[in-house]
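hi!! sorry for the late reply, been swamped w classes. u asked for the two structures so here they r. pasted raw, havent cleaned anything up. first the sequence of the first protein and right below it the tokens
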Amino acid sequence: MISDTVVELSRLQFAATALYHFLFVPLTLGLSFLLAVMETVYVITGKRIYREITQFWSHLFLINFALGVATGLTMEFEFGTNWSFYSGFVGDIFGTPLAIEGLMAFFMESTFVGLMAFGWERLSKGTHLMVTYLVALGSNLSALWILVANGFMQNPQGAAFNPATMRMELTSLGALIFSEDAQTKFVHTSIAGYVTAAVFVTGISAYYMLRGKHLEIAKRSFRMASLFGVLSVAGVITLGDALGFVGGHAQPSKLAAMEAMWQTEQAPAPFNVAAWPNQDAHRNTWSIQVPYVLTPLLTHTLDSTVPGIDRIEADALRRIQNGIPAVEALKTLSADPTNKAALAQFEARKADLGYGFLVKRYAADQDVSKATESDIAKAARDAIPNVFAIFWLFRVMVACGLLMLAYFAVCVIISLRGDAERHRRFLKLAPWMIPVPFIACEMGWLTAEVGRQPWAVFGVLPTWMSASTHSVGYMIFSLIGFILIYSIFIVVELFLMIRAIRQGPHEQGDGTSPEHGQRVPAVALSRELCASSLPNVKEL
């Protein structure tokens, strides 16, 4: 049996690398499309200032893109090194979208990024604009395939367990790709990236306006990003509601944890605005409730019952009892694949096979036939994720979303009035808003992943079975190593970003600077960035 400590360290290491990487992803997704919008305005109007705007923000995009690639390279390898049983069990399904994502990221996306960076003087306006849109498309399609893979983990579709091979196998690529969870999550994540980019651009533009530098570029950037942002934040809130609706059907345990709903309430159920969940006691120590709100919020009806944790645990208990014979039949089939009685028993109970695996953790010698009532009860309690963590992670994310909605409403009003630079108090707030969308994205990711526990693939494969048989010492050493390396990447990102922002658009643009009257190559920073970042990629 794999040590619980190794499993937890494996989870912590993947969480650390994913959280670091996800600091770069939303800005790449959003800034790529915002660049395309900016360049479209340049091509339509022919005004050179919009070319300077596009080039400046593309420099910051390139810094973020290069370091995002560097931090993302190791994550796919972690499935093989730290989650070997998982890779073998679902590799037939999980590997398909990851392989396509690799082609998108390293062939399509990276090729067009190079053309976008170095093609200003070599391509026509229309061709360069097309390349910029292809960069945006490639970035977002790359995210699509990652989220298709993650969507399978959240709500497994298009796959079935084959007792002959003892692994999950792909049965429908269409069902895998067009899973409701995957598609809703993709749109929600992409639009969250647009919000991130809009806050980033408005924050830096406000910084320039406060200092009276690059005013024309700053004001125009602020206006475009404000309009882009207010539409995006409205979209991300709407899609967040849709994702909760879809996820609630696929993972009722996560939904109940998000709302700290221990008991099944008669519809319409009350909504916990704030609470202090107590997992051991299966109740909230205290809570602030709004009556009748939860049911319409989650089900979009007034009379649908929202299952509480009590009902979900009872259902898990039943499914564990039903899954134990499936695990026993599987053990017989592994020794004798032709055993018709065992095959019939497995086929009758296979829907609950994953729940049978849950109790192996507690059964003597990992033999489910020896599982006691106490073992089954422990496994049923495991079917509920960490309620306290999910309840508050979700609320931090929602609070950030509402804050950004209010922020962009003000941004749009002052930018459309044409006097944004006069609102100095608000402009001083804008740079401090830059971390908010990143916090929201991280909280959203944690809500999704922590809420899936105790499953690596929901209802199919428990997390405790999925890890590799490493030593505790190895896991601690590699965890510390990854944290140190990724922390260096964050420092490099901040250094390059701050230096580029301080230099400003004119000093590194390829147009004639109104302040200096001299021409500076547009790709100078890009060349320097590529020269400094490529060795890091090779080392990884």
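now the second protein. again sequence first, tokens right under
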Amino acid sequence: MLFKISLSNIRKSIKDYAVYFFTLVLGVAVFYVFNAIETQTAFIRVNETQREIIKILTTAISGVSVFVAVVLGLLIVYASRFLMKRRNKEFALYMMMGMSKWKISALLLCETVIIGIGSLIVGLLIGVGLSQVMSAVVANLFEADMNNYRFTVSASAITKTILYFGIMYLVVMLRSGFVISKCRLITLMNSGKRSEKITMKNPWLCVVVFLISAAVLVWAYHTVGWDFEHLNEKRIGLAILAGIVSTFFIFWSVSGMLLRVIMSAKGVYHRGLNSFTFRQISSKINTTIASMTVICLMLFVTICTLSTAFTIRNSLNKGVEDNFPVDFYGRFSLHIHDSSDDSSYRTGDIDDVYAQQNMSIYDDFGEYHHFHDYIESNFTFDTFAGDRKDELTSGSVSIYSMMNFDISFLKLSDYNAIMELYGQKQIELGDGEYAVSANAAGMPEMYDKLLEDGTEITVFGNTFKPGSKKCILSSFYPDMQASNTGTIIVPDDAVSEKYRGIDYFVGNYNATDKKGREAAEQTARDHWTYVMHWFQSNTNYGSMQGLETKIEAANNAIGIGAVVTFLGLYIGFIFLVSCGAILALKELSESADSMARYTMLRKLGVEEKEISKSIFRQSGIFFLLPLLLACLHSYAGMRFAKIGLDLLVTENYVKPVIFTAIVLIAIYGGYFLLTFLGSKAITREQK
């Protein structure tokens, strides 16, 4: 009997359950898709490095899934609360007919089980289908071979999804039973007669609170987005706390100001259904201040997460393409003080290390250049900038401007040979002239100012003047990102070998196709590892050696990009669904409570078109307010992210922001449209 009544109730309340069921299905599908990545990618052919990256990705997703489950659990509890409120009169009728509270709780339990099983089945079916698409996305991201791929279903992801959502539904059941046990018949019967009371706050107090909150918010924005020179953990934490509190009080003050402001504009207030519309809006905001605050902050996190994740991914991929122009990059140094002059030193040579094993590094490459840089003791960026350091770094958004780092020197012939190998422009210098090469964020602009002023430098016992008034945007060493903070190029005869620094080798393999390059890299890497290990094991000299390759850099870029992209999508999608669902359920609940008011409007002769317009405005403003403030938060947040991730974020935010906007329109806008249509349908029930 309970099962039949439950099915009947679900069919009867299909409009109430639509958004709830839709949200559960989306949550289940997304949860399965991201937790099935490991199984779905098992048949994709990738190299060992990429396989390790996928393992790291799946581990990270498993950890984030716990957080996602908590968010979805809170959302389900929140949604069930509104659904129960809609059915207060129904529960009162059951009690009047003699049904015990225990049986009502059992009825709710049965309905929850039916909805839960239905959402799990539908969500898993959709998730299994979408996970096949996700496999193609992962394969494209890793440039992998899918010839051995086949349709798969992840048993572990299904188990995890059922377990997590089963716990959520159990919490909902327990809560529903507890709420029913505390209900009184008179309270349930009168629930529909008690309309939301509009608290008319003191308008002047609201204005003062709004202005103070706005001022505090501006301070928080400035602290994290512009005043980066004074940033520390304490100031960042204080700014975040100030932003959260200010957000709450902005919604609190707006809820008291909105109706008053509209009422003061008589021409607007008395036009059409504006008086009714804005009273409804004021009531909704007044009763959901905390919810609006949470939704605004979740939207802020979503926008920043999605935009920054894709910006990092794009920056890494483009960084490798632009800043790693050769296949192989090795460096080696061996410091030995010369007994005849304690102030001088020489470094080891890669050729010597290979020769000791009867090997030659040149055999593994088709084109290459072997060189070393030069070091002038105690010549740093601060030395170069002199008294202008504070002036140059003021207002800079580069993290390097806060540091004092050594500047290395290159011979002109070495620099030009390197640029020829890289396919970049070569330069010329006159006697006694120098040039500066840099490409790290913010550094070329500072060097430009020094060069324009004709700043002279005295190094290696000689004085040099600028050969050009512009810094060269380049780097003599390959890297994943533009990281050359400054290299000074001088004529060949200007330096002595006693100032010799680190020994470098850059080159391209003989192979041209992908498989050939991978095989050549393995050979070159094995040779390098062998000779360097032998040298460190059989000598007592202190040394430093490093090896980086373009394939390795590309894999690292793909790995970091994959992790931040998938985690960003996972968290962003769940947060968007949660925000949309909470607002939709609240709006639909309010529409149901206001059915009698819409019936009265129709009896007074108000046209259906005007009522629809009023509902559209209510839903639009209700969804738009938290989004607008979240967008303001996001601007400062993304500026802070760009400063904090200066080494990773080199691309602009335009394309990622456009993508984020599309996702927002699709999901958040979709919930708005469903809410508008649902509210229209509910308000027509008593037509």
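hope this helps!! also noticed smth abt the second:
Residues 1-194 form one domain.
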